[in-house]
Structures are given as structure tokens and as C-alpha cells.
Amino acid sequence: MDVVSDLEYFMRPKSLAIIGASATPGKAGYNFISNLLSSNFPGSIYPVNPHTERILGLKAYPQIADIPEAVDLAIPIVQPSLVPDIVRQCAEKKVKAIMVSSPGFADAGEEGEQLETEVLNIAREQGIRIMGPNTQGIMNLDAGLVAVSVVPVGELINGKGVSFVCHSGWFYSDWILRCPLIGLSKMVDLGNMGDVDEVEVLDYLGADPQTRVIVLHIEGIREGQKFMRVASEVTRKKPIIALKVGRSAAGAEAVASHTGSLAGKDEVHDTSFRQLGITRAMDMDEVTDFTKTFACLSPLPTGKRIGMVTFSGTGGVLAADACDEFGLSLAQLSEASVEKVKDIIPAWASVENPIDVGRVVDPEVIGRAYPAVLEALSEDPNVDAILVMAMTISTQPELSAYNVLREYAEKGLKKPTVVTGLRDEEGLKELSSLELKGIVTFPTVERAVKALAAAYSRHRFLSR
Amino acid sequence: MDVVSDLEYFMRPKSLAIIGASATPGKAGYNFISNLLSSNFPGSIYPVNPHTERILGLKAYPQIADIPEAVDLAIPIVQPSLVPDIVRQCAEKKVKAIMVSSPGFADAGEEGEQLETEVLNIAREQGIRIMGPNTQGIMNLDAGLVAVSVVPVGELINGKGVSFVCHSGWFYSDWILRCPLIGLSKMVDLGNMGDVDEVEVLDYLGADPQTRVIVLHIEGIREGQKFMRVASEVTRKKPIIALKVGRSAAGAEAVASHTGSLAGKDEVHDTSFRQLGITRAMDMDEVTDFTKTFACLSPLPTGKRIGMVTFSGTGGVLAADACDEFGLSLAQLSEASVEKVKDIIPAWASVENPIDVGRVVDPEVIGRAYPAVLEALSEDPNVDAILVMAMTISTQPELSAYNVLREYAEKGLKKPTVVTGLRDEEGLKELSSLELKGIVTFPTVERAVKALAAAYSRHRFLSR
Question: Chain A contact for B352, CB < 8 A?
Fold first, then answer.
């Protein structure tokens, strides 16, 4: 049985048993079922609970053995000490895979560690794969599977094929709240990673046709060689963004108490990530920025020369500094571009790159100047990517940055285009909606440039 | 006449003339007047325009000379080439200060540079101080003065005494949109800094009783020695946060074309900022984070030992890494603290710091655990600051992070407390409102720790 088909029992089970199902809203044993029902899980759901007849309209069974059909995936939600026996019962029922959600194993001291070893030994003997322990669960929005122990935050949609491998419910939840329109395709919380590890899931997602971008939250890499082999294959096919935590001594200690993992030396990761073409993120801001860049930006940059249009001279200064810091450069505009825009922008303003179209005093200037400059930069052979500093607030809404950029995007984007600038809340929402059309928005000039640099770095990796 | 009283004519003029006033909404000559009216400017406003009788209900005068009263501050909004003559007319009228808003001077090549020199020479001969040219204007919300050429973004309030010295309308506007509840006290856009420079304004704000925190946006420092002398005095009295742009060669070039300033060597700034106790920000995210920390966080940290409460083990790992990176440490909790919380948090969870109160499955646990842990950390002599990782989304609103933290804040904050975590839009707004009560919110664990480190660094500077 190869890894991909093993994981299919977790990612696309035909039938599911919730052992320790509960009729009490808020309990994990209730949440798993209600989440599966809300996500329109197409397979069978079997609540197991000896004290109740029905849970959320589904017939409950006293024992696993009582379930009339075969069970692909069992999810025990019971005291850790009861898990070994549950695994034995699952083995008798010929359950293929078990996801142990409860904490209290290798994450909780020596006793818990022994219990985890016991569970893993039984499962191995019986040929059952284990996800966790101490996992919030799995999502596969391409298969109607939302098997998580908590009420998910935000709306669950799958816009752009972003899949997460993590050790934390917080990690993917934060992403959902940050990028509600992009959503996620698949999410696997590895928990303590007792059996199924990040390499297997990475391999699975590498082969998964719906996954376009993979985000890895790494507490520890168990088998470095295996990771490097699989990652080097996957990263040729799709971008991997990795947040490696437990970088410091104190962080490594915190990792041990979180999921019992060994965090490993940080220097190793930094070098190997670069060699493997993995985009390393240092915090959730970078995870967000890089992930939405790879998921949405279209096309991706094939060079490092940035053309910029701005309403603020300071924006141009910040961009110049940021290009220098992140290894990009400001394009030298072609003569044709200068010809095209020189009559549109104010006499005092600069037709050099960055093109400063002037203050936002006059929305009509903005409404004429932005489209013309964007058109010129799109056609300029000296420009590889376009950075727009725009203002969403306008006295004439039809000339707002959103409307100008929407029209520009709808004509078909010839160059990768990113946006930053002044935005109120409403304007930010509007601009973010352009991400589905290929234009990505960032909170600062620096983050926009850094994200373009990450994308260009991937281009160089693939051309190597 | 000393600097402070010179600047009073810009910051608290008794009477103002708008030369080139316009009745056309959207034009700078209109915006200046409508902004002053909206801000309830208590002095006299004199529109000057020979072609109209009234503008926005105010009597317009054909010439400066026709104004019946003395004029403290004149704001010419005319073609750059007409400015020298306007300055001469102002001199005859004994105008004390002139703010030249128009661009097209040292920011626009050699010809503009000559024009700027001409204007400055006339003004100097006549004893008139010049703000700009190429400035969006000045705000002094403590004196009802909103003298800017554009319609300001967001609501103008002065919550916490934050004052800005900048070369860009974008800079202060971005701040207003980012921190709408904190607002600003004073804002001076230096523009090309032909006469009044950042040192004079810094000196003014240092002495200004309403200003508690100063934010400097620096394109170039003209007189390093003078800057260091004034900054070293001011920084003992109140925190200065500086964003120095034009750090790279390309950035310095962009600065020259923006305001004609010389950006200078970056290494000089980095060392001198540290010596002077200036908090250096590298982008607008850091400006925001550090400014709201100094403006709102109360008390400020006097040590580097962080106590943390989290709902996510990953949060603890991230905090440990961030403490290591930014020179702070995770506190070793006192035995008393451990005693206080050990029965409240789940058996499997960690009573070591960071205290993980468990998953957010059960809001009642959260509702009981957070207050108890916050109380324990507040009393713990080993803890200098508290980092909260919270979730604003709760099935029981009365147990939401916001409500828990509001009650905690209302009892009186004994330790500096910062918050990060999972938040939806509504939750973020609620959490941000706690900034006025002393608890500051950050988008990531790393940024929360970095801001605490900046605050602790100021403590060390002041104790030195």
C-alpha cells in the first residue's frame, strides 16, 4: 500500500466513525459531526455512543463493532487512556485509518509518551495508520470533508488551491481569517506526528491535482533525507511556503511541550530550504503575503525590474529602498513609455520610474493617469512587474483605485501587478477581491516588494 | 525670536490667508478653506481671489493688501513662478509665516531649485519663515487647525498625543487609517524643507505639552550635529520613532526627486539613532506597532521577562522564538503562580510559561482560565510583561477575549499587556478599542514581542 492510497482513507474516507460522539454543542464529539454535516460530507457518518440513540439526526451505535458497514476512518474522542483499547476495537472492525484528536500523549510528559508508543505499536501491528495524536483534524474541501474538533472560524471556501500541513488549528484558522476569499483546499493538522508525518502529506499534496500551493508549518523534521527527497520533487511542481518554528533554544523547548517534536538546528533548515526552492516565511504576515502571491499573482515575474506608479513620492522612495533590500531593481523605462505618459502627468512630477502621477487632489487626473501609466508599463519591455501605490478613497467612486484596477485586470494582465497604498476598510475589501483576478494587495510597499522578490526567486529556481 | 515662537505662527496662527482660494470643490484652494471650517479653526480665515466675492460663505479679498486685519500665516496656492511675488506682497502685509504647498521647486529639477532659492532669499530678507515648498500642510488638532490641501482621510481625532513630522501626506494619512481611535495631535509635512526643518519641528514638539509621542519621517537630515543635540534632549522627555527612507542608493535618488533632500549614509543614522534613544522603524507596519505601543501601552515594561497565556501551543513556540530574536525572554513563573492556575487549566496542558489554557473548544474553560492566568501573571514578581494570545470568536460572547480583557483592563493594569491571536474583523475592532485602556493589539506574535522589546529598550535608555 503506497503513501498516497494510505492517506486517501484520511482525505477521502467513504465512511467515518466518531467514537465518543456527543449531543452537547461545543464538545469535540459534537463538533466533528456537525462540521461534517455542514460540509455536506458525501460518505456515511456513524456516531458511536452507548448512552444515546441519535446525535444530530444520525443513528448512534453503542460500539464500533455494531456499525453495519465498513469504516474507513475512525475518530476517537475519548480519554487518552482509553485510546489503546479503541484502536484494538477498530482493528477488529478492519478500520483503515484512525485520527486521534485528543491531546495528552507525547505532548504531555513521559506518561503520555508511553501511551502514544502503545497506541502506535498496536496500530502498526494491525496495519492501521494514525493521524495525530493531538490533532485538531483534517479538511478536504474538494471532498466535503471538514473533520475538525472545533467550530471553524470564517467561511470555508476553496478559491485557489492552497493546502496546509500544520501542527496547529490556529495556523490554518488564522489564514482563513486573513484571506477569506482565497480559502483553502486541504488542511492536515499533524499534531504529534506519531505516525503520518509531514513528508507523507507533502508527497500526497504534491500529487493532488487540486492543490496548487502548499504551506508547511514545521515544528520538527523527523527524517531529513526523506524530507529533502520528497520536497525536491514537489517543489518543482508547485510552490512550497514553509514556516519553521522552534528556531531558538526556547522555541525548541516549547515545541517539545507542544507536540513532543524535536525542532532541530535552524541553520540546517535555512540552507536546505533555499537549496530545495522552498520559500521560507518567518511569521504569519510572510506566510500570508507569500501564499497569496503564489496562489493569485498572475503572471509570475520572470525578471527583477519593477515599474511603479504612485500618487506619493514617498511611495517611490520606499519602493527603491525595498527593491535594494530584496534584490530587485527599479526599471529604466523605455523611451516609448516616457512618450506615452509625459503629457498625462503633472509638469512638476517625474516621468522617471517610479512614475508619480501627482497628488490625489484631483480625482480626474488619477482616473486618467493610472490607466495610461498601467498600459505603458504593461507594454514596456524593460518592466518585469508592476507595483501600484493607489488610494482607494476618492471623491469620485468611478475613479477609485478599485475601479481603475478592476478595468485594467479585466483587459487581461500582461505583467504581474501588486498594489499597496492608502486604503480604508471598504477599499481594502474591494482591493482584496482583485486577488481572484490576479492583482495582489499588500499592507506596505516593503511587503509588496518582498513578495515580488519571493515570486521572482521561484522563477529563478525553476529556470535553474 | 526663538524657534518655538516662530513655529507658533504655523501651528497656532490667529489669522490665515489662502492666496489663490477657489470655490471649486476638489481644488487645493478650496480644500484648505473647507478643512479649516470643518476643524472649527478659531481664528480668521481670509480667502484671496480677485475673481470672486465669497468662497464657502467667507468674504474673498482681491489682494493680500486688502485684508483688513494682520495675517499670521499665508498659504499661497498658485503657480510656482508666481510665488516670489506673493512672498513680497506678504512681506508688505507683515505676514509672519508662509506655507508654500505647491510642488515644482527643488523637487522638480534645476529650474525649480532656482525658484526655491529665490523664494527663500526674499523670505529671509523679509524675516518671514517658510514651510515647504511642496508640503501638503499642517495639522494641529489641539488648536482646530487642519490646514491641508487634500480632503483628509478618516476621522480626525486626537486620542493619545501622537505627533508627526513628515515629508508626505501619505505618511500621516496611512497612520490615521491604521489607528483611527488613536488619531494624531499635530502633523507637519515639511515638504522640501527649504526653511523650517525637521530639527525645529522636533524641538517644538519636544516642548509641546500635548505631544506625548513623536513620529519622524526622515528623507534627509540637513545638519547632523543640530539634529543630534535637539533629538538627545527631546528623547529624554518623550519617545521618538523614526522612519528613515532613502536608505539605498536608489532610494536616495528617489528622495532627491521627491523633495530635493540629500538622504545621507544609512549607517550613520542607524548608529546615531541607537545612541540617541530613537526607536527606528523600518516600514509602516513598524511605525504603527511602535507608535501605538508608546502611545497606549501602560505601564511600559521595566524588564524583559514575558509571561504568556495562549490557547495554542504554536503561539507559545512563536513567542519563544520571537523573544530570542528580539532580546526578551520567557519568564520562569513563581511557584505561587503555578499554584494559582494548575487546577484551572486542563490536566494535559502546560502550567509552565507559556501557559496554554487549552483549545478553544470549551468557551467556559476560556472564560475561567484567562482571567485566572492574567491575575496570576499580574501578581508574579518574575513577570515583567504579559503576552496574550486570544481568540475573539466565541460561541459565548460574554466569554470572548474582548470581554475578558476589558474586565481585566478595568481592574487596573499592573503589567504591560499586549494581545494577538485569532480575530475576525469585528473582534479586531473590539480589541483595538482596548488600546485606549492600555492593552495593545498586534497582528502577529512576532510583532507583539518586537513592540515589547522596543518599549523595554526605551526603559533601558531612560535608566542609563
Answer: yes
Cβ(B343)–Cβ(A196) below 8 Å? no
B153 and A422 within 8 Å at the Cβ level: the answer is yes
Q: What is the pLDDT of residue B32?
A: 97
Q: Where are the beta strands (DSSP E) in B327-384?
A: 329-330, 355-356
- Kindly state the cell numbers that stand for A317: 522612495
Report the side by side order of strands in the sheet with B186-189: B145-148, B137-140, B186-189, B162-166, B213-218, B240-244, B279-281
Q: How many CB atoms lie within 10 A of CB B236?
A: 12
Among left, alpha and beta (phi > 0; psi -120 to 50; other), residue A318 is alpha
Angle, helix B83-92 to helix B109-126, in steps of 10 degrees: 10
Half-sphere exposure of B14 (CA within 13 A, CB side): 6
Compute how many other C-beta atoms are within 10 angstroms of the C-beta atom of residue A158.
18
Q: What is the pTM of this model?
A: 0.94
Nearest to B116, CA basis, from B130, B95, B126: B130
Nearest-neighbour CA in chain B from A1: distance (Å) = 33
Most distant CA pair in chain A: distance in Å?
A: 83
Instruction: Note whether A31 contacts B: Cβ–Cβ < 8 A.
Output: yes
Stretch A252-269: mean pLDDT: 73
Residue B323, judged by CB atoms within 10 A of its CB (0-12, 13-18, 19+), counts as buried
Residue A423 in 3-state DSSP? coil
Evaluate whether B423 touches A173 at the Cβ level (below 8 Å): no
> Which DSSP state fits A302?
S
B204: closest CA among B164, B259, B254?
Answer: B164
Q: What is the share, in percent, of chain A residues with pLDDT greater than 70?
A: 94
What is the dihedral angle through the alpha carbons of B96, B193, B243, A454, rounded to the nearest 10 degrees? Answer: 140
**Exposed e or buried b per residue across A399-436, where buried means at least 16 C-beta atoms within 10 angstroms of its C-beta:** bbbbbbbbebbeeebebbbbbbbbbbeebebbbbebbe
Please give the Cα distance from A159 to A166 (Å, whole number): 20
Q: From CA B311, how far away is CA A173, in angstroms rounded? A: 13
Spell out which residues of chain A touch residue B150, defining contact as CB-CB under 8 Å. Answer: 359-361
Task: Kindly list the strands in the beta sheet with A97-99, ordered across the sheet, starting from the edge strand earlier in the chain.
Answer: A44-48, A15-19, A73-76, A97-99, A129-131
What band does B360 get if pLDDT is binned at 50, 70 and 90?
very low
Task: Collect all residues with Cβ–Cβ distance below 8 Å to A247 and sequence separation of at least 6.
Answer: A263, A266, B321, B324, B325
How large is the average pLDDT for residues B224-242?
A: 95
- d(C-alpha B38, C-alpha B141), whole Å: 11
| Size of chain B in residues | 464
Q: Which of A153, A174, A254 minimises the CB distance to B320?
A: A254
User: Which of B257, B285, B317 is nearest residue A219 as measured by Cβ atoms?
Assistant: B317
Nearest to A250 among B154, B323, B445 (CB): B323
pLDDT given at position B4: 66
Average pLDDT over residues B273-286: 95
Which carries the bigger pLDDT value, residue A368 or residue A134?
Answer: A134
B182: closest CA among B278, B288, B283? Answer: B288
Which three cell numbers mark B147? 490646514
Estimate to the nearest angstrom the gap between the alpha carbon of B82 and the chain centroid: 34
The torsion angles phi and psi of B335, rounded to 5 degrees, stand at -60, -35
- Asked if residue A120 lies in contact with residue A140, where contact means CB atoms within 8 angstroms, the answer is no
**β-bridge pairing A58-59 and A54-55:** antiparallel
CA neighbor of B15 nearest in space, from B39, B45, B38: B45
Q: Of B390, B454, B443, which Cα lies nearest the Cα of B416?
A: B454
Q: Do A445 and B283 touch (CB under 8 A)?
A: yes
Return d(Cα A428, Cα A423) in angstroms, integer. 6
